[in-house]
Amino acid sequence: MKASAWWLCCGLSLLVLAGCSDEASEPQSFAGLGASLDTGAQAKDFAQPRPGDRIHLPADLGPHPGHRIEWWYLTANLTTAEGEPVGLQWTQFRQALEPRSPSDVPPPPEDWPLQSVWMAHAALSTGEQHFFHERVARGDIGHASAHAQPFEVWLDDWQLRETNEGAWRLQVQGNDWAYDVSLEPRRPAVRHGEDGFSAKSASGEGSLYFSYVDLAIEGTVTIEGVRHQVSGSGWFDREWSSQFLRSDQTGWDWMALQLDSGGRIMAFRLRETGQAYTAGTWIGPNGEAQSLKSRDFSLDVLDQRETPRGPVPTNWRLIIPDHDVDIEVTTWDGNFWNEGLYPYWEGPVRVTGTHTGKGYLELTGYDERQR
Predict the structure, then answer these.
(1) 281 within 8 A of 237, measured Cβ to Cβ
(2) Domains held by the chain: number
(3) DSSP-derived 3-state class of residue 33
(4) Which of 121, 206, 344, 371 is 20–30 Å from 337 (CA)?
(5) Is residue 164 part of a domain?
(6) pLDDT tens track for 10-21
(7) 172-228 pLDDT tens trace
């Protein structure tokens, strides 16, 4: 789940109103950025996710023009042929500036329509380096889009495309780094929350959210001209909504974990004034998923790391009593700030305790430069 997408999509709206310049001014704060959003169309004009809404595949791999915000999101823990660990992240966001029915015919590109804006993030992490790149494009003029069948999501030459039935290919080129990998889901999609409706507060705001929690991945990464063969496993999220986070929600902690025992865990904590809203999903080795409410698990910070943008909680304890889970989740050594329009922390983690494994951790709202 990419809760940073809510904040990033707010920034996208401001960016496109400024002319879609690649040199965007940094927003001043989470709450300030969300509160200053004014794109004409309001949230009430868009389709609203609600409990009881159903996810339909493969159709929901494609875009949802009636909703305000959505994203496609991949993380992966890979190993080179030499045995070195590599982390990979790719995300593409769509922000609608006005609602549109899926049956509507888009205006012709020559009319220079301004109905949506897209942003893509890509990162590559090793034991010594963290690379990040960001791209922005207007929608509906041929620079970025998505389709369900055949499945494809792209922004210029960054692309995730279906190659064979059930297999995908991701190609990304950054500055002095790149990756070209194939992905194949080894399990059916998992629907989070109430059969796909994932609440984001006690008052009921939420999104539609599903994941492929076990992707077989192989291909190449290129770092400063040196190409490496890589293989490993990944996690793919798909999520859409029309509701930005409230101004009293100051940040987000999210993790996706792949346990060596075959279990999978998604857990998040939305930090609210005076409290936190937590939820998650347990997926057993047999693929059976259980929605986790706050009473079902605990998620606590054990330690933090000093970084150039302020302290970041990089060591966590996660307990799920019903599944005999008592684990520590620890970020790799290093600095994993993605320094784009809105900086956030995203990097690989290792899992120890009653279970071992690997995964990814995303943290927003810790950047002291934007407070």
Answers:
(1) no
(2) 1
(3) helix
(4) 206
(5) yes
(6) 455 444 434 443
(7) 999 999 999 999 999 999 999 999 999 998 888 899 999 999 999 999 999 999 999
